[in-house]
Design a protein that fits this description.
By secondary structure, the protein is α+β, with helices and mostly antiparallel strands. 33% of the residues lie in helices and 24% in strands. A six-stranded antiparallel β-sheet has the order 3-4-5-6-10-11. A five-stranded antiparallel β-sheet has the order 2-1-8-7-9. A three-stranded parallel β-sheet has the order 12-13-14. Strand 3 and strand 4 form a beta hairpin. The chain is globular and about 65 Å long.
């Protein structure tokens, strides 16, 4: 089973440190994927990171270069503005905030829900984590009964109904939502939806295309981890090629190594797959990227189907 970024629980009768039980992965913290910050009345865990630091600096009334990162930055925002900043936030993150003074726990996901965040309730307690299985363990359940509507959706390739998971009793905080829990009562609130986006005036196709290209470059740059090697998935299509090219430029601009490219090795006896292989190799050569091929034969498919989907981070993220 993959190591969860974090898992924890809170209990009624809050206000004391003993009410919060929290474990954050040391290895993922060292790698910069998750962070924890403790203040006198506040503990914050941030899985991922916040971006658009210039606007956050303006909100906090300080210089951008003085801002901390990760949970330390989220703690400043929560302490100064509670959760009013969430609708305007940018980044790839899931947030946990525990206020010891009020005995309130908040779980929140970013607009697109790109980081998993699960929870379940037992009498007088809320259990939460970045993966389903550790949440079940925290709830005292070695295994879970399947939640059949979600299982049916999964088997036909769809996501589970919003807020549900494959496991009975474990729910997912939906994208753009926050869950607050106080003294045994949970309340789910939508903090962002697409209607919050400003309406753009009618523009030419060329202007719209230019703006889209700019936004893709910004998104790729903001999605890069703080350090270390990065990679991208090449499929032979235009979209993955654009992301790969933008990733390469972002790495060159920041002095990072050339990213790796990953691709599935299809059945080249089929003409369409053979064309994809040639396109992927050509794109790798053009961008000077080393392409790492992974098998996608029947044995790999059966091996994937034999795994417990509750233990797969990709499944957790999708649900």
């Amino acid at each position: 089973m993959t190591q969860p970024a974090f898992v924890g629980s809170v209990r009624s009768g809050a206000g004391s440190d003993e009410s919060l039980d929290l474990i954050v992965s040391e290895s993922l913290t060292a790698a910069g994927h998750v962070s924890r910050h403790d203040m006198s009345d506040l503990t914050v865990v941030l899985f991922g990171d916040l971006v658009d630091r210039a606007s956050l600096a303006r909100r906090l009334g300080c210089a951008e270069d003085s801002l901390p990162r990760g949970a330390a930055l989220a703690s400043l925002l929560v302490g100064a503005h509670d959760l009013e900043w969430l609708p305007e936030s940018s980044g790839d993150f899931a947030l946990v905030a525990w206020n010891r003074r009020t005995g309130t726990l908040v779980l929140a996901r970013n607009h697109a829900g790109t980081r998993p965040l699960f929870y379940g309730e037992t009498p007088g307690a809320l259990h939460f984590g970045s993966d389903i299985s550790p949440v079940l363990t925290s709830m005292g359940q070695g295994s879970a009964s399947p939640f059949l509507p979600a299982v049916a959706a999964y088997l036909v390739g769809n996501a589970a109904p919003p807020g549900t998971t494959l496991a009975e009793g474990v729910r997912s905080v939906p994208a753009g939502h926050l869950l607050s829990w106080h003294d045994g009562t949970a309340r789910l609130v939508c903090h962002w939806d697409p209607s919050h986006l400003p309406h753009s005036p009618v523009r030419s196709l060329n202007d719209a295309a230019a703006e889209l290209r700019t936004l893709i470059k910004v998104a790729v740059g903001e999605s890069m981890p703080p350090g270390g090697a990065v990679g991208t998935h090449l499929t032979g299509g235009i979209d993955s090629a654009i992301v790969a090219a933008d990733l390469l430029m972002a790495c060159e601009a920041t002095g990072r190594p050339t990213p790796l490219a990953f691709a599935w090795h299809p059945d080249t006896s089929r003409e369409s797959d053979a064309i994809d292989v040639r396109l992927i190799n050509a794109m790798g050569t053009h961008l000077s990227m080393s392409v790492q091929w992974s098998s996608a034969d029947d044995s790999a498919l059966w091996a994937a189907l034999a795994r417990n989907p509750l233990e797969q981070p990709a499944t957790s993220t999708l649900l």
